[in-house]
Amino acid sequence: MFRTPAAVAGAVLVAAMVVLAVIGPPIWGEAAEHIDAGAILQGSSAAHPLGTDNLGRDLLARVLVAGRYSLLLALAAALIGATAGIVLGALPSVLPARPARLVTGAVNALVAFPGLLLAMFTAVVAGLGARGAVLGIGAAIAPGFARLTQTLAASVAGADYVSAARMLGVPRRRILARHVLPNIAEPLILHLTQALGGALLGLAGMSFLGLGVQPPSFDWGRLLFDGFGRIYVTPEVALGPALAVALAGIGFNLLGDALARGAARTSAPRTKAVAPESADPGEPEPGAVLDVRDLTVTFPGGVTPVRGVSLSAAPGEIVGLVGESGSGKSLTAAAIGGLVPYPGVVGHARLRLDGRDVAGLSRKELGTSLAMVFQDPMASLNPALKVGGQLAEVAVVHQGATRAEARARAVDRLGHVHLPEPGRQARRHPHELSGGMRQRAVIAMGLMGTPRLIIADEPTTALDVTVQRQILRLLREVTEETGSAVLFISHDIAVVGELCDRVVVMYAGRVVEELPADRLTDGAHPYTRALIASLPDMDTDRSLPLASIPGRQPAPAEVGDGCAFAPRCPLATDACAAGRPPLVEHGPAHRVACWEVTCTSTA
Question: Which CATH superfamily is domain 5-266 in?
Answer without folding.
Answer: MetI-like (1.10.3720.10)
